[in-house]
Specification:
Structural class: alpha/beta
Radius of gyration: 21 Å
Bound molecules: ligand EPZ
Shape: elongated
Number of helices: 14
Helix content: 25-40%
Distance between the termini: 4 Å
Strand content: 25-35%
Strand order of the largest sheet: 22-23-1-24
Length: 421
């Protein structure tokens, strides 16, 4: 297994190119099952999660052609609408094939995704929504088996929680359902807008994207399309936190106006980070403070502070002036990075759904264990900030969501390298 080795304490200076958004690319790739025409995607990030989704689509009889950041997917009727445990357990977003398969073929057998390091992550909201659309489910041997008598029927579906995945699964299914579907209390993440835009290019009739009420009028058939995936706001936010923690000046490129505005809004509360929009595709970020202000933040569904940046924020605040309180309201166990940060001398402890961080002048390099995607990126930031050497083990977690992170950082003056294992 590969490791990453960092000698910390250096400011970050240079340019970082942001890749396409994993959490937009995954549902959009699943949406290719809704048509037998070609879906041509660009700005696809080179990540293990993307390869897992491509493998799953291939197992469902889709033709795949991948050349660097471009992917062409041509779905054909699967021999069996079956998504195996082997494939789904590796990447829970595989569960997003359920909606397209039910909507296109009227039946599907998809492995229950199971939990992961950050929580139980049930799929009850997905299933209840599909039952409203006329699906009958049976749970057998760890699989969800869904059947529709004739066609999916449009319905009004109120989500008890703004679930990103449930919104995406139901949105995709509703595009071919009979009649109108209204998703109330829908999640509003930018990645859902990206999915909706791609579906509309395929001929879907969707309105209300980005609001908490999405309205879909089912159509008979969807066409193929060409679509460029949005930039990854979470990857970009991770690097912004790295600059706050290490100081320096970095330009993030390959963004777009919407993601730039989202980053400016999200980071407005961090007064020690100077964010300037350079043009429609890049921002310049500077932080000269060795010590910066602490914060009190609670993660919330969009447009609140994203849970996917919580671990990275926690790492940075280990060196803030004063005490920070960070509350995780989305997942029940997204603090796997805390024990590792403590090994670096951080004064951080968990109290229920909060972490309390008493900022210190220094943290120190150590041998660390990555446990999940965003916890891994939090350890990278801590290693860049720490005095001395940090070695991070099990970096396959990192490779799920960050393309060439050590290369991008080493081009910005960081002393970081991957040790092939
Ligand atoms: C998506 O996961 C993202 N993944 C996650 O990013 C992200 O953290 C999450 O949304 C929240 O923003 C992808 O887009 C591939 P949810 P998802 O359904 O869809 C509970 C990363 O780091 N819930 O909004 O699984 C659930 O347990 C990943 O890139 C139910 O109870 O998130 C969780 O506590 C991690 N029942 C909360 O809702 C359900 O049926 C949020 O889940 C569904 C969800």
């Amino acid at each position: 297994m590969d490791k990453i080795e960092i000698f910390g304490g250096k400011p970050l200076v240079g340019t970082i190119s942001i890749s396409g958004a994993k959490n937009a690319a995954l549902p959009i790739m699943a949406a290719s099952l809704l048509t037998n025409n070609e879906i041509k995607l660009s700005n696809i990030p080179n990540l293990s999660d993307i390869n897992s989704m491509l493998k799953l689509l291939k197992s469902l009889n889709s033709n795949i052609c991948k050349k660097s950041e471009k992917v062409i997917i041509k779905s054909q009727k699967p021999k069996s609408n079956f998504a195996s445990y082997e494939l789904v357990r590796k990447m829970r977003a595989s569960f997003l094939v359920l909606g397209p398969l039910l909507s296109r073929y009227g039946e599907a057998k998809v492995s229950l995704p199971g939990g992961c390091a950050i929580g139980a992550r049930p799929i009850d909201i997905h299933l209840k929504g599909f039952e409203k659309m006329g699906v009958n489910f049976e749970i057998k041997d760890g699989y969800v088996i869904g059947k529709v008598k004739k066609n999916l029927k449009g319905a009004q579906i109120s989500l008890p929680f703004k679930s990103v995945g449930a919104t995406e699964n139901l949105l995709m299914a509703a595009t071919l359902a009979e009649g109108k579907t209204i998703i109330v209390n829908a999640a509003q993440e930018p990645e859902i807008i990206d999915l909706g835009r791609c579906l509309k290019l395929m001929g879907a009739k969707v309105s209300g994207l980005g609001t908490s009420k999405i309205i879909i009028s089912g159509v008979k058939k969807l066409m193929g399309c060409n679509y460029k995936i949005m930039p990854d706001r979470i990857e970009a936010g991770t690097y912004l936190f790295a600059v706050l923690g290490c100081s320096g000046s970095v330009e993030l490129v390959n963004l777009n106006n919407e993601v730039i505005q989202n980053l400016i809004d999200t980071f407005a509360q961090f007064k020690d980070l100077d964010l300037v929009k350079k043009n429609n595709t890049s921002i310049f970020v500077k932080s000269s403070k060795k010590i910066f202000e602490s914060v009190n933040i609670k993660t919330l569904p969009f447009p609140g502070f994203p849970t996917d940046l919580q671990a990275q924020l926690s790492a940075v605040m280990t060196r803030a002036k004063g005490t920070s309180i960070i509350e995780e309201s989305i997942f029940e166990n997204r603090f796997m990075h805390v024990a590792e940060l403590r090994r670096m001398g951080a004064n951080i402890l968990i109290k229920g759904s909060r972490v309390i961080i008493k900022g210190k002048k220094k943290i120190f390099g150590a041998q660390l264990m990555a446990t999940d995607l965003r916890a891994s990126s939090s350890l990278i930031i801590a290693g860049l900030m720490a005095e001395g050497k940090t070695t991070i083990n099990r970096v396959y977690h990192l490779d799920r969501g960050y393309e060439k992170i050590e290369k991008k950082l080493s081009k910005c003056n960081a002393n970081i390298k991957r040790i092939k294992g």
